[in-house]
Design brief:
Elements: H1 9-21, E1 30-33, E2 48-51, H2 61-74, E3 88-93, H3 99-114, E4 118-123, H4 126-147, E5 152-155, H5 162-169, E6 174-179, H6 181-184, H7 205-210, E7 215-219, H8 227-233, E8 240-245, E9 256-260, H9 262-267, E10 273-277, E11 280-281, E12 291-297, E13 304-313, E14 316-324, H10 330-333, E15 346-350, E16 355-358, E17 363-365, E18 368-370, H11 375-397, E19 405-410, E20 417-419, E21 425-427, H12 429-443, H13 452-459, E22 467-470, E23 472-473, E24 479-480, H14 494-505, H15 507-510, E25 522-526, E26 538-543, H16 553-558, H17 574-577, H18 581-584, E27 586-590, H19 595-609, E28 626-628, E29 634-636, H20 639-651, H21 663-671, H22 684-691, E30 703-704, E31 710-711, H23 716-719, H24 722-731, E32 733-739, H25 743-757, E33 764-771, H26 778-782, E34 788-796, H27 809-817, H28 821-830, H29 833-837, H30 843-864, E35 866-874, H31 878-882, E36 886-887, E37 893-895, E38 903-905, H32 909-920, E39 924-929, E40 947-951, E41 960-965, H33 976-993, E42 997-1002, H34 1005-1013
Parallel strand pairs: 3-8, 3-9, 4-6, 4-7, 5-6, 7-8, 10-27, 10-30, 11-18, 19-25, 19-26, 22-25, 26-27, 41-42
Antiparallel strand pairs: 1-2, 12-13, 12-18, 13-14, 15-16, 16-17, 20-21, 23-24, 28-29, 31-36, 32-35, 33-34, 37-38, 39-40, 40-41
Helix pairs in contact: 1-3, 3-4, 4-14, 11-12, 25-28, 25-30, 27-30
Length: about 1000
């Protein structure tokens, strides 16, 4: 399998932000004579070197600061007041979004724009070094396709000095990857980079490197840049230094030009959604009965509970897991253990709060453990829960071709693998626990309908081959604890390299789903792997060690945040999955503490990471910003415009009394239906971008993995019903749309729209005068508030714009509308003379507004003249069997009688009422809330209808109905995008069903009844 890479806009934006800092620098390549050193040479030796051309004198520090400030404003970053050295730039990128990819792309862009070709990547550890090297390897072909050249990259090794010679003398893009120990180290190989070496013709490697004037990129600077490192880096003679990390130190952020922090990455679904399985110890008495509540099982029958408890055997006491009903007596079923004699009979199993209650009054919730709990018991529970989560995720994703991996972090090898005196290996306590729990779970697994292939997959994998440990290996081939601990130094780190071979260098093999080639699904490794390594298909992370204050929860989750890939190497992102992206990409953390404790700690770390973001929406958030309209026009926000924006936010109920964003804002943003008045609508995307810069802890919701206790089960009987089969046969065809609008009609409508709506403001000048009576404070002076405005005069310029400026009116409109020149000429000839006269007074605004109005009419024409044609391709019924839909009983899920599944998950109270009415109506045969994978293609994006309903024949006029539910039908003022999608859906269903399927928008069952009976 080969990993596939996509061009992502945010990675391009980050690269161009760095490139833009040096706007004004020409494309230059520079050669020099390399110091040829001492020793034997021939006339054939070529000592021509290639270096990065310095910044030209015309590109002054003030000009570069000006460029930085412009970029910072565009990216909603606090503006720098000065240059932090010559030149230091910071890029913040959240873990898992492709930081290494981004700085490789930046290298290519800097080379393309300015000719710079020498780069050094400095990393803090062997783990990160190996990961970076792997990234260069697997992206090489991808970038070569885009840029037509390949990077020559190598890892610095003091015994391979010819590579440095080649680095200096090669005229292509060259990258040296070096870990900081190589130029900071002490010991046997101490600082060879600074020594005159005989094998290097009595030259110092650092001198040859420095002559190339390299661009230094520091990966994870917070782990690299101590005082010593900063001093030593100066000897590299860097043209500039670029710093990339998700967790920069607050005092080490230099001229930040791009930021994609945790908040933005999470909201844009560029990383996995985070879920936590907590474990809570609620009793500590060693004499009290041991019970662990694994979970509550809900179905159409009475709820059951999965519990673990002690069981007496002839060989001693062991822990067993059973699915039990109300009335289950632990004393009777444990071999009459005394610890359960006092009232341990289950009296109640409650799916609403995931709890069980005993006759003795004790009540425990899913994830709770009571009784004698030592560390081994806690670790066994964690291991079991990890396997359960893994199997659950694996079943959900198996038919999607996605391999699931789980990662265990441990602090010493002996807990995973041990060796006897003869050197033979045997399982440590954690490996032993794993195999026991894995065997118990898999042997008791109830295979569902359609899971035959998955069952065969499990049967081919042995419990001992599906887990593996990745640690350092000694000379005898034994796994050992790494000798290199964090904060210690080594020039080469050779002992650590074996630790990372498979998981670093054979990442693709780990992702292979063939059980014969790659049976490993569970990885045990040293906690040192918290940095530098991640695999996109890690879905579970479990830390089997005591938490310490220096271990950050963000570090723990960071190893699994990257979006997963399928068996073809395709990234399962929004482009591939649409709204399903965060249903497929879920990272579950199996914590050794309660959900509340872990979630609160993780959220506080996220909040700390984005502490410089604003927290309230006030006028000050907008004042001074430059908004760019949909057609490129720009406007600077003054006090009046900021007040207008704030008023619109309040009027549309987008902010509350505390000046924080409301659920209505997030809902409208999700649906693409944000609404402002006509004056602000052209700038809606810019306003939303500013609002997105505000920190809102609601956006960092860490899901409780036990919360969704209902997984919808497909009702095979309903799937086989004649009514459903007929309904499905009529709606499962896919379609393709074509647009064939009448140019004459478009010209006519564009002329009318321009005559009615094109109003251009004449150029105005505002003259303000004021005085400074007194200075109250330094702060007031710095804020510019000491001057008092006394008089304002406005002047309108009635003169015609100077004729020395030429405007290609027709060409610009052609470019902005994609219409022919002939069509544009006819539109301009058709508008009224006084409308056309406005061009003379403000040509730029005339062009921009004309383009916007014409494009609006064009979009309307596209929708009105769209035609859907039926394709041979159809949706398979497996979209219902493959879908994994979960909810929480009585929160967003309820039992259903006539739904295709045993329960229904609803998004709103209106949907709940609608489904309840469908369930009790005798005219309804069967209905289903359609999964996200069922969609219609439209010019304005994919559209997923809500409901498919089949009625009993003879009871209504229209037997087959597709419904879209809306909360209100008072005015039916559906937004443009919604209207367009609904219009397209009507055309689609009409085309594929010969009018046998009716599609419409309803707000309740009564409005549906009116439609199906008329």
């Amino acid at each position: 399998m080969k990993l596939q890479f996509k061009h992502q806009q945010f990675q391009k934006d980050a690269a161009l932000a760095v490139v833009g800092v040096f706007r004004g620098q020409p494309y230059l390549t520079s050669t020099y004579m390399i110091d040829n050193g001492e020793g034997r040479q021939t006339l054939l030796d070529d000592f021509t070197g290639w270096r990065n051309e310095p910044i030209i004198p015309e590109l002054t520090d003030s000009k570069i600061l000006e460029n930085i400030n412009e970029i910072q404003k565009e990216n909603n970053i606090k503006v720098s007041e000065k240059l932090e050295g010559r030149f230091n730039l910071t890029v913040e990128m959240e873990t898992g979004v492709g930081k290494t990819y981004t700085y490789i792309k930046t290298m290519y862009e800097l080379n393309k724009k300015y000719g710079w070709s020498k780069f050094i990547v400095v990393v803090p550890s062997v783990a990160i070094r190996e990961g970076v090297h792997k990234s260069f390897e697997i992206t090489q072909e991808h970038f070569a396709e885009e840029y037509g050249k390949k990077i020559r990259y190598f890892v610095y090794n003091s015994s391979r000095l010819n590579q440095i010679e080649q680095f200096a003398s090669d005229n292509s893009i060259n990258v040296m990857i070096i870990n900081s120990q190589a130029f900071n180290a002490t010991g046997k190989n101490a600082r060879r980079i600074y020594m005159k070496l005989d094998e290097f013709r009595s030259r110092r490697p650092i001198d040859v490197i420095a002559k190339t004037n390299p661009i230094v990129i520091i990966d994870e600077p917070q782990s690299v840049e101590g005082k010593k490192t900063k001093e030593n880096l100066e000897q590299f003679n860097a043209l500039m230094t670029l710093r990339y990390s998700a967790t920069h130190k607050k005092d080490s952020i230099y001229n930040m030009v791009y930021r994609l922090d945790a908040l933005e990455a999470y909201n844009k679904k560029l990383v996995k959604r985070i879920s936590v399985k907590g474990i809570t110890e609620t009793g500590s008495s060693s004499t009290e009965g041991y019970v662990y509540l694994e979970g509550i099982n809900l179905s159409k029958a009475a709820p059951t509970a999965t519990i673990q408890f002690d069981y007496k055997t002839s060989k001693g006491i062991k822990k067993i897991t059973r699915i039990v009903n109300e009335g289950f007596n632990l004393y009777d079923n444990s071999g009459e253990l005394e610890e359960y004699k006092n009232g341990f009979t289950i009296t109640r199993i409650d799916g609403r709060d995931n709890s069980i209650e005993f006759i003795n009054g004790k009540k425990i919730f899913a994830g709770d453990v009571i009784g004698n709990v030592n560390e081994d018991v806690l670790r066994r529970i964690q291991i079991r829960e990890t396997i359960l989560s893994h199997i659950e995720r694996e079943r959900e994703l198996f038919n999607k071709g996605i391999k699931v991996l789980s990662l265990f972090f441990i602090d010493e090898v002996a807990k995973y693998k041990c060796y006897d005196e003869a050197g033979s290996e045997y399982n440590g306590i954690y490996a032993q626990m794993f195999e026991e729990e894995y065997n118990d779970i898999v042997s008791n697994l109830k295979i569902k309908f359609g899971e035959t292939e998955y069952q065969n997959y499990l049967n081919e994998i042995d419990k001992s081959s599906t887990h593996a440990g990745y640690f350092s290996i000694d000379k005898k081939g034994k796994l050992v604890d790494s000798k290199i601990k964090r904060n210690e130094t080594s020039a080469s780190g050779e002992n650590d390299i074996d630790t990372y071979d498979l998981i670093m260098k054979n990442k693709e093999l780990l992702l292979n789903r063939d059980p014969k080639k790659s049976p490993v699904r569970f990885i045990f490794s040293h906690s040192a792997l918290r940095e530098g390594w991640d695999n996109p298909n890690v879905f579970q992370i479990c830390t089997l060690k005591q938490s310490t204050s220096d271990v950050r929860k963000r570090q723990e989750v960071g190893r699994g945040l990257r979006l997963c890939v399928n068996d073809r190497g395709d990234r399962m992102d929004t482009n591939a999955l649409g709204n399903e992206v965060h249903n497929v990409n879920v990272l579950t953390i199996i914590a050794s503490e309660s959900y509340d404790s872990f979630a609160k700690g993780l959220q506080s770390e996220f909040a700390e990471a984005v502490a410089d973001r604003p927290v309230k929406i006030t006028e000050d958030l907008f004042i001074g910003r430059v908004l760019k309209g949909i057609n490129g026009e720009e406007i600077k926000v003054d006090n009046d415009l900021a007040d207008a924006i704030q008023f619109e936010l309040i009027s549309n109920k987008y902010i509350d009394k505390k000046h924080t964003l409301t659920d209505k804002y997030y809902e409208d943003k999700k649906n693409g239906t944000i609404e402002f008045d006509d004056e602000l609508m052209p700038y809606v995307n810019e306003i939303v971008s500013i609002l997105d810069s505000v920190y809102d802890n609601k956006l960092f919701t860490i899901e409780d993995a036990r919360q969704n206790n209902i997984e919808l089960k497909l009702d095979e009987n309903k799937l086989a019903m004649k009514e459903f089969k007929e309904l499905w046969k009529k709606i499962n065809s896919k379609s393709i749309y074509v647009v064939d609008f009448d140019t004459e009609e478009l010209i006519e409508k564009a002329v009318n729209a321009l005559d009615q709506n094109l109003a251009v403001t004449k150029l105005q000048f505002k003259v303000e005068s004021g005085v400074m009576n007194k200075i109250k404070s330094k702060e007031e002076l710095l804020a510019g508030k000491s001057f008092v405005k006394e008089e304002v005069n406005n002047y309108t310029d009635h003169s015609i714009v100077g004729s020395n400026v030429k405007y290609d009116l027709i060409g610009k409109i052609v470019e902005g509308t994609d219409l022919t020149r002939k069509a544009v000429v006819r539109i301009l000839q058709g508008i009224k003379p006084y409308v056309f006269e406005q061009f003379k007074f403000n040509p730029e605004e005339f062009i921009l507004k004309a383009i916007s109005i014409i494009n609006s009419e064009k979009a309307t024409a596209v929708i009105e003249h769209i035609t859907y044609n039926v394709m041979e391709e159809k949706y398979d019924v497996n979209i219902f069997t493959d879908a994994t839909i979960k909810g929480k009983l009585d929160v967003n899920a309820m039992k259903a009688k006539k739904h295709l599944y045993d329960h229904i998950v609803y998004d709103s109270t209106n949907e709940k009422r609608f489904a309840s009415d469908l369930d009790i109506n005798n005219s309804v045969a069967v209905y289903v809330k359609l999964p996200n994978s069922f969609y219609i293609s439209t010019p304005v994006g994919k559209y997923n209808p809500d409901w498919a309903i089949a009625f009993h024949e003879g009871s209504v006029k229209h037997v087959y109905f597709i419904a879209e539910t809306k909360g209100s039908m008072d005015s039916l003022e559906l937004r443009t995008i919604e209207q367009s999608k609904i219009h397209c859906a009507k055309k689609h269903f009409k085309a594929i069903s010969n009018n046998e399927v009716v599609y419409d928008v309803v707000d309740n069952y009564e409005s549906l009844l009116n439609l199906i009976t008329r």
